[in-house]
Amino acid sequence: MTEPMAGRPRLRRPRELSNVNEFLNEVRLRPGIWVRRSSLQHLYSMLIGYAIASDIHDTEEDFDFGNDGPFSQWLWKRLGMAYPSALGWAVEIERAAEAAGTQPMETFFSLLDEFRAEQGESRNMDEECSP
């Protein structure tokens, strides 16, 4: 049995993950293991499958990654789009990455970090404003 590379966390199995954010953190660490050809469209399909399974099993988890979900709504504004894209966030991020000369998966995680930071700030503001 081989030992994990020094300084690199071990690969966690899906049953060890408790929510979509933990799954995305695993994808960030090893995109080639999780996502075929590091395609955002494949990642999107996996996330939709995750949402369907969560719905079937009646979990109480918030899901931000649907085509009309909070991540998409934020992204359209972030990319300066006047209206939502019918093609979805994966295609639009791939287009933006190509225009910028960056890798789509890298661009996705950079945007996800921005989204999470802004969501954290707005949640903190909501908590401060509540009586």
From TrEMBL:
<protein>
    <submittedName>
        <fullName>Uncharacterized protein</fullName>
    </submittedName>
</protein>
